[in-house]
Structures are given as structure tokens and as C-alpha cells.
């Protein structure tokens, strides 16, 4: 009999996992976690489950264990982690996650959503609309006189971000959606035949599957940083490198900076420093717009040529193909384009109303955990086969999976237990001191027997570390 496909089995298959290992996974089901019209809870559970199982598998191999440690998925921990940016407190201060111009707007024929959290994106939006200063009323007045599609094209042409609201049917007919649907959830490519650096066996009381792995983190915002934050939890030496002229939003950096170090390198003036880092890296994770790093010789192919045996992991908003392949994007905008916002607002059938949103930036967080899972599985494969590899994911492809590939319900034959409903996150929050101040933050949802329960170090100030490996 063909086994029934469940969300976690689909995610595990997408990263190349052995289906027999799914028996090592158990779930704690909590009603009310990530409540939505779409099966967000099931997507979140599957992405974290694939990541935790990949970590447990790699840890067992490196530690010489006879059996892969058991994985425990708790809907409460997962739901809390999927909105980690909302739970962060720095000395009691809550972060601001969306700027005043990052929101839905009425247009002459529907709705559009803009994203202007970063100063350069805000400036380009205002320039495209002909509004001289940050005045929400003035922006609203201009948008109300234009069509949503006109705004989308005008703002993107100026280098800003705005996406017209589409229904699921409208998105399915779009050329970009067609290109996305042709791709697997996780793309895999062998990039060379060189042997990767051998990883030493593990010992110690805590199982750290990625101990000794050097991860060069070239990501921003949420999805990529969630992946590298997870690899740092699992013992990797993660060094995030940013251009000095493009700082990350401080609260965003704090939320995703656990376990990492942060440095700045100007690729136009200090290329030698970057190449020295690359020469000893085991993994490079990139999260910039497709093509943005190519002018620096940092495409996956060029990276692999200069560092044989390297694992390259790429994440983007729309995918590196199709007419939107080089467009910027964020979770909130992908939700609007792909019909998710229309569905969550009860507008998918053409009904009047206001667009909605998922209860979390689940495309970002889910794709981030899947990206980490793909890296961990690539590291496991290298133990047997060597070879450099490239894995690619996109928020739009994760959205396709959420909207058409997941059905709510139990996880098939996986062991599960019902627990109290999810109504408060306190059990999955903790506190610690840091260079940034006293932090309250979400605990990791990645849980397996013998594995870590917290990061080895809190986040530090952006760009405060030296650009070198430990």
C-alpha cells in the first residue's frame, strides 16, 4: 500500500530524507495554535519537523549512535517561534515590525500592499508616487486614484515594493505562478565532485549536529536569518556578513541574531577579507534578490568554483526564474500576490471586504526552517558522498504548498498527544542578558533527544564582530 502523504512526510521528502525515520517523530497537538483559514499550523509543524529530524539524523551519524534520537514537535513551541519577532523585548521595549507605509491601501479598483520598512525602499516608494515626504494621507490619496496593477508596476520600476491583491485564481493564471508551480518545494543540485572537508566525530553531553561547521551568512530580514539562527543553535560557527552601507533593522537583527556573530565587509573595497572567509567556509547561505550578488562573483556556480565541496543554500521571494525572478519581495507581499491575503480576508470568491493575513509570517519562518533542514541533509549526504551541493527555496513556492498541497488534519501514523489549547506563549518564552540589554525571546521549537535547548550566545550589536572564523 502506498503510504498516505502528510505535511511532514512531504517536507521530509522534499529535503531528501529517508521516510523510515519519520517513525522517530512525535507531536504535541494544541488547538488554537496559528489559527487561520489555511493550514498554517500543519505547514509550521512540517517545516520544523523536517529541520529537527534532519538535525537528529546528522547528530546520530556524527556521534556514532545506533538510533536517530526522537524528535518532539510541540504546537505551542512552534506557534510561539513563528512569531518570534512579536515576542522579542529589549529592556522591556517591544519592537515595531512594520513601518507606517508598510500596509494595505485602497486603490481605484481594489487593494495594494506596500513594504517600506527600510529607508531606501521608503524613499523609492515616495519617489514613484510623487509624494515629497512620508505622509500616509498623501500616499493614500495618490493610490486611491490609480489601479492596483499600475501602482505595482510603477513602484517596482522605481526599485520600491508594492504588490496588487490577487485572488488564488488570478495568481494561478499569472506567468510567475506557472513558473513557480513547475519547481519542487526544495530544489537540489550537485555543484561539483570535490570532497567536502571531513567533520570530526561528536562527543559531549549535548548533541550539536553542526558543531565545527562554518556557515557564511549572507542573508537579511527573516527567512534566511531564521535558517542560519537554527544552524547556530545546532553548533555551527555562523558569521553573518553585511555591507557596511546597508544596516539591518536593529530589532530584526536581534530576533534572528541568536548564536551568531555579525561583521561588515565592503565587497568593493575589501574583497580579500571575504575571499579568506569563503576559503574556509563549509556552507554559504544567501538571501538577497536573485542576481544581486552575481556582480560580485557570488552566484552559486562561482562560489562552488572557488570553494570546491561547498554547500550553497539560496532563498528568495519569488524564485530565481520567471518574469518576477529578479524582483524584490517579502513575506507580506507574497501573501498578497498569491491569493493568501484574499483567502484569509474571505475575499477569495470575489466577495467584498478587506484583505487579511496569516497569523504569522509563516512563509518566512517555514521556508527558513526548511532551508536549514536542506543544509543539514546536505551535510549528512556529504558524510557518504562528499561533493558540493546547492539547494534553493522560495517564499512563493512555499506559498504554493500551503495553498494547494496541505490539508489540515492529523499527521497520519505519527505518534501524537492532545494537550491544552494554545492560548498564551509564556511557557515557550525565556530571558537572558546581552550586549543589547535584557532580552525576552522565543525558545527554539527544534527539539530532539539530547539536543540543545537554547543558543550558546545571545545576539550582539550589528557589525560588531571581526570578519574571521572562530
UniProtKB/TrEMBL annotation:
Which Gene Ontology terms cover its molecular function? transferase activity
Q: What is the superkingdom listed in this entry's lineage?
A: Bacteria
Q: Which InterPro entries match?
A: CoA-transferase_III (IPR050509), CoA-Trfase_fam_III (IPR003673), CoA-Trfase_III_dom3_sf (IPR044855), CoA-Trfase_III_dom_1_sf (IPR023606)
Q: Does the keyword Transferase apply?
A: yes
Instruction: Supply the SUPFAM superfamilies for this chain.
Output: CoA-transferase family III (CaiB/BaiF) (SSF89796)
Q: Does the keyword Transferase apply?
A: yes
Assigned keywords, A-Z? Transferase
Q: Name one Pfam family in it.
A: CoA_transf_3
Q: Would you tell me the protein name for this molecule? A: CoA transferase
Organism (species): Streptomyces sp. NBC_00180
